[in-house]
Amino acid sequence: MTLPTISLTEAQAFTALRTLLLGIVAPNTEVIRAQINRVPEPRGADFVVMSPLRQARLATNETTYADNVVVGSIVGAVLTVSQVVRGDLEPGALLIDSSYPVMNVQPGTIVGARLTGTVGGSGAFAVTPSQTLGSETLYAGVRMDDAPTEWVVQLDIHGPASGDNTRVIETLFRSEYATAALEDMGFAVTPLYCDDPREAPFVNQEQQFEFRWTIDCHFQVQSIIGTPEQFATEIEVDTILANALPA
I need a surface site. Which of 24, 74, 89, 119 has the fewest CB within 10 A? Predict the structure, then answer.
């Protein structure tokens, strides 16, 4: 069974958020992810900790299909596409050929990342498992389920500059600045709104109080789940005479 693929991983969403925060907080303010064992607090006095709180569905799935057809050959773990007949190859797509179900390409052959070339054009792709396949027409249909989701992240803003950092984050998060910045990164992460900041002193291991503010930030993330899909290229229709059927 072929595992589904996901277009936007949680790690990518955190990378986008961290990049945004590093661009707007005070210099020398580190941004880290919470819930990672055996990782101490940053050495600097000012830092931000990102904690995932919940995911809430915003709509039912929007399902689309892509019937991708290419001409290519495989040597080892590399698929070389010499011609794109229709569509493009996506990581996670299942490859079959015209002789299905007894195929020249090995059953369960999955397309990996593009190695050379541009989107929509010829080039090389990683594939698994490794094999040798002469040039032929290959089919890589895929079903795509788009599930809009609200992603909520708590930001714990520590340090002497936490009050100022909080004000900057809250203000820019509610402006077009954050929306444009995340869009420029190429990730499907869009700010929705953030809750009012809360001052929540942090007690460290020496039982001393440290400055800390918290904000719950709400995003819309678009994660497209891809699963292999087979398409028919032709239909054979036979005629059966009604009077020829057994009584």
Answer: 119
